Amino acid sequence: DVHLVESGGGVVQPGGSLRLSCQASGFIFSKYWMIWVRHAPGKRLEWVASMNEDGRLKWLAGSVKGRFTISRDDAKNSLYLQMNSLRAEDTAVYYCVRDSGYFDFWGRGTLVTVSS
Amino acid sequence: DIVLTQSPDSLAVSLGERATINCKSSQSVLYSSNNLNYVSWYQHKPGQPPKLLIYWASTRASGVPDRFSGSGSGTDFTLTISSLQAEDVAVYYCQQYYVTPPRTFGQGTKVEIK
Fold first, then answer.
1. pLDDT score of B33
2. Regions of chain B with pLDDT less than 70
3. Can you state the percent helix, strand and coil of chain A, rounding each to 5?
């Protein structure tokens, strides 16, 4: 079975940093694009970042460009999201998702709260 | 960016009745070379991750009950729940993967029991 488990969320002050991790299992991680999607309270789902199979292609949403970085370690079957200069509007549940074109498997998410 | 607009924003349906959700794209998401529509649908319940229901506009994901169906082509798509069950209360999103980045979602439609 495919499993995606996020970690690293928490409460952080505006301007602070967090690093989210996603541990994948149950599939050949190195053969898939992987993405981060977030859901802020009362808002729609929002795609945040994508990375291709070998890590050479990275795309970031305009709302996080210059502040967030996506990376992966295929040897560890892990995906990461480094979040810097966090703002109140980054408060959301962050999901690690397998990208098959459509988003076929989702982790349970990790909550990031940006508040003073 | 492709903008997806869902209608209605919310709807209340009696148990056993049909629920219909529409999704309109700002541009066609039909790829002519393979005749596939790059649209998917997700169900999102509180406290749970979103769940893939439909991909390629009309293909049910594994394990999804057959009361869920998707239709449409080009710019107009529909998710239908043929006989609403209590466990179907959720927010439903359409999403396009024709153009990336960015991957865009509709604003969501909240389905409740009347």
1. 95
2. none
3. 10, 55, 35
Give the DSSP letter of residue B26: S
**Which residues on A lie below 8 Å from B51 (Cβ)?**
106
Are the C-beta atoms of B32 and B48 separated by less than 8 Å?
Answer: no
CB atoms A103 and B40 under 8 Å: yes
Q: Does B97 touch chain A (CB under 8 A)?
A: yes
Which residue, chain included where needed, has tokens 């949403």? A61
Q: Of A9, A62, A52, nearest to A32 (Cα)?
A: A52
What average pLDDT values come out for chain A (116 residues) when binned by 10 residues? 98 98 98 98 95 95 97 97 98 98 97 97
For residue B40, the chain A residue with the least C-alpha distance is A102
**B51 contact A CB<8A:** yes
Report yes or no: A34 and A72 within 8 Å, Cβ to Cβ.
yes
- Tokens 């927010």 sit at which residue? B91
B9 Rama sector, left if φ>0, alpha if ψ -120 to 50, beta otherwise: alpha
CA gap A105, A33 in Å, rounded = 12
Amino acid, res. B78:
T
Q: Side chain identity at A66, as an amino acid letter?
A: G
The DSSP symbol for A88 reads: G
With contact defined as beta carbons under 8 Å apart, do B45 and B95 qualify?
Answer: no
Q: Which residues fall within 8 angstroms of residue B82, CB to CB, at 6 or more apart?
A: B18, B67, B68, B69
| Cα–Cα distance measured from residue A114 to residue A59, given in angstroms and rounded to the nearest whole number | 23
